Amino acid sequence: MKRTKMYSLLWLPVVLCLFSSCAKKEAEIPVTTKSEKALELYKEASDAMEDVYIPEAMDLLIQALEEDPDFFMAAYGLATMNFYFGNDEEFKKYAEQAVASEAALSEGEEIMRKMLQKLLEDQDADITDLGNQLVELYPEDPIAYNQLAFAQMMNDDYEGVVETLMKTLEITEDSAGIYNSLGYAYMKMGQFDDARSVFDKYIEMEPDLPNPYDSKGDYYMKIEDYVNAYESYMKAYRIDSSWSHNKALRAKELQDTILAE
Question: For 8-206, which CATH class?
Answer without folding.
Answer: mainly alpha
